[in-house]
Design brief:
Nnr; seven-stranded parallel sheet; binds ligand NAX; UDP-N-acetylmuramoyl-L-alanine:D-glutamate ligase; twelve-stranded mixed sheet; alpha/beta; metal ion binding; 2 domains; Rossmann fold; 491 residues
Length: 491
């Protein structure tokens, strides 16, 4: 798992490490990594300007500037000469860096204004530097984090920050580098570069986690409970888990089908469908493996329910029925407006920003501005796991590190994709995963399946569902490549 840590945890780890190594070592290592990264993402001998703030973030920038000045024209713009990192400043001067007062005219800008010590927002002269950058659009490389963002909250309140095309971070990721909206302004693409400065042994549990293609342990642990020790499928379909789908309505019949197809594409062994006669007939017609029930009283046993996708007016009644079974439930779409005050079963709530806003009685824009804060609020309010859908979907359970999903493609923003996701999540729940794991695994394979099915172009939700089994197979077999799971070339 990829990990991010809070500022306080990074500071404590840095202090512990610093007491073990010669003074200045961490900054030298960070600066060397930064210089190498600048060479990599802005190759050639073109001029570069380093924006230097008053703290150690500016120190990193100055030492990296000194190193690069041997190879190309390097300028430094100092925010406040009376509060500059002294040794870094001498090093940059000695290396021949030119002093300038703004990034004007430079094609490559390195932002060392503030790092983890920065309060959100920018002060003079950095606010003016930002305006120049906005007008001229140079290639911007952030040092540790883009200056001005809220590092732990991952927000960009007020818009007073320096957007980056690339970020070079040290020791561990920070929340703002993985979670939107801040993460979307830290890189063009998925991930900043992480420079190892020896912090890992001193870091506590993370604040944020993200599954990766290279690490299939969580998937294997869930599949291990549905498949036997030798990895062979048991003969009993029921031991792989039965997922019940109570989704769709006369008005939204497609949602029922897509949710069922999602449920079929996951690890569970069987799908039951509960719905009225016409809908049930259509589901069985298109998905003959499904066992359909029209009478809730004769619905059969399941290990997990998925309720609400396209459920319209029937969603409330379906949710009440599902909750009677005392098994885990995925609560999606229309059912989210009918959640009880508290749940007696494990629950995965799967809202998008608008649905979460309605649940919390706030504006949608407030959720979009602070998705982590609102998902956390809802998780605590309902003592349930919240999967908040977005470009970087969040999975938040009370008292646990939040998980962020880094797979997917902009093409996944398509009708019915959420219905498929709810079905896949229900399948993982029925297979024995807890809601937090089910949500994270489902979001991961769903996003990766979109990339596979899309091939870089438009994709339908049905094709995403069809691609899920192949992604699970590749991930399980260790052949899933990180480059296959995301298509984030666009900001
Ligand atoms: N502590 C360490 O050993 C290491 C620190 N490193 C670097 O040091 C950074 C943290 O350094 P600091 O703790 O000195 O803090 P920063 O350099 O991030 O920022 C603190 C300084 O910025 C000013 N400031 C705060 N908010 C501001 C704003 N909104 N606009 C303008 N100025 C603002 C403060 O007055 C203070 O002088 C990390 O992000 C990283 O880049 C790295 O060198 C790795 C090792």
């Amino acid at each position: 798992m990829l990990q991010a840590h809070t500022v306080a945890d990074v500071r404590a780890a840095e202090a512990a490490l610093m007491s073990q190594v010669p003074p200045g070592s961490l900054m030298r290592w960070a600066a060397a990594g930064l210089a190498a990264y600048v060479r990599e993402v802005a190759p050639g001998s073109g001029p570069v300007v380093f924006l230097v703030g008053t703290g150690d973030n500016g120190g990193d920038a100055l030492f990296a500037a000194a190193e690069l000045a041997r190879e190309r024209f390097v300028a430094v713009a100092i925010a406040d000469p009376s509060r500059v990192h002294v040794e870094g400043s001498y090093a940059a001067q000695a290396a021949g860096c030119r002093l300038v007062d703004s990034p004007r005219g430079f094609g490559v800008v390195v932002d060392g204004v503030v790092g983890i010590g920065g309060a959100p927002g920018l002060r003079p002269p950095a606010d003016a530097w930002r305006a120049t950058i906005e007008a001229e659009r140079p290639f911007v490389i952030a040092v540790d984090v883009p200056s001005g963002v809220d590092v732990d909250g991952a927000t960009v309140a007020g818009g007073s920050f320096i957007p980056a095309d690339a970020t070079c971070t040290f020791g561990t990721y920070k929340n703002a580098l993985l979670v939107d909206p801040a993460a979307g302004w830290a890189v063009r693409g998925a991930l900043p570069r992480l420079i190892d400065i020896g912090l890992t042994p001193y870091l506590p549990a993370p604040s944020i986690e993200a599954l990766q293609a290279a690490d299939n342990r969580l998937l294997l642990s869930v599949l291990g409970s549905t498949l036997d020790q030798r990895g062979e499928a048991p003969t009993q379909k029921y031991t792989r888990g039965v997922v019940g789908v109570a989704a769709g309505s006369t008005a939204y019949a497609g949602a029922a089908l897509l949710c069922v197809r999602g449920a079929q594409s996951g690890p569970a062994g069987m799908v039951r469908f509960l719905g009225e006669q016409d809908l049930a007939a259509r589901v069985v017609d298109r998905c003959p493996e499904v066992v359909a029930h029209t009478d809730p009283a004769e619905r059969g046993r399941v290990q997990a329910w998925v309720v609400g996708s396209g459920g319209g007016d029937e969603a409330a009644a379906r949710l009440a029925v599902a909750l009677e079974d005392e098994v885990p439930v995925v609560v999606d779409a229309d059912a989210l407006q009918h959640v009880p005050d508290r749940f007696d079963v494990p629950v995965l709530l799967t809202p998008h920003a608008g649905e979460l806003a309605r649940m919390l009685d706030v504006e949608r824009s407030a959720v979009e501005a602070d998705p982590l804060g609102h998902a956390t609020r809802a998780a605590e309010r309902w003592e349930a796991t919240v999967l908040l859908k977005g470009a970087r979907t969040l999975v938040v359970a009370p008292g646990e590190p939040a998980r962020v999903n880094l797979t997917g493609s902009p093409w996944l923003a398509t009708a019915g994709a959420g219905d498929v996701l709810a079905g896949v999540a229900g399948s993982f729940l029925a297979a024995g995963a807890d809601p937090r794991d089910a949500g994270a695994l489902a979001a991961f394979v769903h996003g990766a399946a979109a990339v596979v099915a899309s091939g870089g172009g438009p994709v339908t939700a049905s094709r995403v569902a069809d691609a899920v089994p192949g992604v699970i197979a590749a991930w399980r077999n260790g052949t899933l490549d990180e480059s296959q799971v995301r298509d984030w070339r666009d900001r």
